[in-house]
Inverse folding.
DNA sequence: TCTTGGTGCTAAATGGATTTAGCAAGCCCC
DNA sequence: GGGGCTTGCTAAATCCATTTAGCACCAAGA
């Protein structure tokens, strides 16, 4: 049964011309001297037959496949990862490209295999995404392969896309300041001590730097800093519970991410403290849960989709080989009020 | 610079044989009469040169590309979607395939374009995933194209993968029963009235059917059913708040999904009711938030990854053309206790 | 009349594999 | 010594498009 696909030869035959002529016309080559009549006949034939070029055959000659590779350490674990993918998918679609997605879980062997599989398919470029946002290991790529690093950096491939964490960190502080907070502000998730360590990702360091720079430019200091390594709700819960058990002057919390903030909500509720009347909270990421919380959590968003988008734009458009910073939008909900 | 890729011709030359011989040997064709010596020389040459076949060139002849298409209405919105993708990616990798991911947002035009783009690239098969889980529209595919429907059904393509919702629904009731609940059980999210409507997805209908069948087999009835169309936390909050304002005999809640349960937690907490001491809760999906809640939410999980996995196994292995049901694992946390 | 130049188009090579048809050499057997 | 059979391998076609080189024709100029 299987109706055969229509090939360029079919189109050429129907137009009464050679495949060379058909190819040139369909590709809109400028210097061609083919008659208007030939153009019309080929275009009509292609339309009537529903001709679509075979990408593999074309790629064989041109080395272009309109396909890009997206290799990520994680794809399903965080909303961040899928946001990056979604953004990349959209931008790729707009540019008439498709994307091969691969997950490596950070395993070097799988990374190498992923690259090999992509190269076997002659992808036009590859995006390396990481959820850990640090100096990223990348297996050697053949000279000339385009690559952009998403949410991380790599010395060999300087084109990268990162969230503008510094600015974002500052924005969080500014939100609190705008509501009149000056005292009793605590930081949950980070501390000077932790910063000295290089374990944390580079982007987190920038976030903290932004926070501290805004604090000091307003002449403010934290009344407490709760350092935590893992940033899950339970850790936010514990840190906040500990904090409010120790002191009663806490008026505002800056949480390093929304999951910590979630835990903070729980600890506050158990202690009979209300958000935002008793304690204001501002946080980072704009996780799904930020919208689910009551009251809604005001947070500085990680611009997932915009980042994914920009990565493919840079890959395809050949943007400059530097780090590109994507603004982190403030998402205001209801977790900040003026201090009483 | 750009070092040229090693081709089969390079391997053949180094082995002192023809490309035909090299091809047959590397593909391990059984009927070949080539000498052991020839085998050794070709294999050695391939290894030494690091030869990898060009997939496009091979696909041109064989019509196999070791590539599968994954077209989904949504990719980033829910954890469910990315779980399906992750499962598919893993199974594909194990089978030596790669996957082209496309998002359509349910738009017919984009679906058609996605299919066309996949066909242009000669994919070996296509997985159609939907987050809405209903009869799925699928643009016409050339005869012979393999397809499996993930989380939905389609009359033309009977091979599909669905969660075993019926069984899952029953499991939720059994959990409550096992703890001794017999009275004051309410259902949040669904009602007889809503079921009559066909708007809801087929899988939800099965979930409800399972719940009702288990209830009646234990001679139990719901003391209340709160019908809701949208299943976000706020709706769960409102429904639960309404319910406990009206009556004080509620001892257990079956929520149609975790987000509703999240809302229920909030309403209960505001009313000074404790989970699970005052009210037990069981729910569905095993969303991220189920683990974040305090106490942890006991829920019947949607088996995302297993479903994605199975879909590619069926696609590649040619499983039988029927609906395949994947068990929904019970994830016990701490939201159920014996009634007081 | 012959060259030159432009116009409109095509033949053939190319990319990198797979696959079919078949060649050459050696051996056996009558 | 000639036919037939293995054995071990290769030439060439094929998949489908792109691209280079160049053919055939006509008109204009010398």
């Amino acid at each position: 049964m299987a109706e055969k696909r229509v090939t360029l030869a079919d189109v050429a035959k129907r137009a009464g011309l050679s495949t060379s002529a058909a190819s040139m016309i369909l590709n809109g080559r400028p210097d061609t001297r083919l008659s208007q009549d030939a153009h019309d006949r080929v275009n009509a034939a292609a339309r009537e037959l529903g001709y679509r070029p075979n990408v593999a055959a074309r790629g064989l000659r041109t080395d272009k496949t309109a396909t890009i590779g997206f290799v990520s350490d994680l794809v399903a674990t965080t909303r961040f990862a899928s946001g990056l993918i979604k953004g990349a998918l959209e931008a790729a679609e707009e540019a008439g490209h498709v994307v091969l997605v691969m997950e490596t879980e950070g395993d070097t062997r799988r990374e190498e295999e992923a690259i090999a599989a992509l190269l076997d398919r002659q992808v036009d470029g590859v995006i390396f995404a990481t959820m850990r946002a640090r100096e990223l290991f990348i297996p050697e790529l053949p000279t000339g392969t385009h690559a952009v690093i998403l949410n991380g950096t790599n010395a060999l491939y300087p084109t990268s896309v990162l969230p503008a964490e510094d600015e974002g960190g500052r924005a969080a502080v500014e939100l609190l300041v705008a509501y009149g907070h000056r005292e009793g502000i605590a930081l949950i998730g980070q501390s000077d001590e932790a910063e000295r360590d290089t374990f944390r990702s580079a982007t987190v360091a920038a976030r903290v730097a932004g926070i501290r720079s805004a604090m000091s430019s307003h002449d403010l200091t934290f009344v407490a800093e709760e350092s935590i390594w893992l940033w899950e709700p339970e850790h936010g819960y514990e840190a906040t519970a500990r904090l409010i058990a120790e002191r009663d002057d806490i008026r505002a919390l800056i949480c390093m991410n929304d999951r910590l903030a979630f835990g903070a909500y729980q600890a506050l509720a158990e202690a009979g403290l209300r958000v935002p009347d008793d304690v204001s909270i501002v946080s980072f990421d704009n996780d799904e849960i930020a919208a689910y919380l009551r009251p809604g959590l005001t947070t500085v968003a990680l611009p997932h989709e915009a980042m994914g988008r920009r990565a493919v734009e840079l890959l395809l458009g050949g943007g400059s080989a530097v780090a590109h910073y994507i603004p982190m939008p403030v998402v205001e909900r209801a977790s900040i009020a003026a201090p009483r």
Summary: Residues 17-21, 32-35, 38, 57, 59-63 of chain B lie near DNA strand D (CB under 10 Å from a C1').
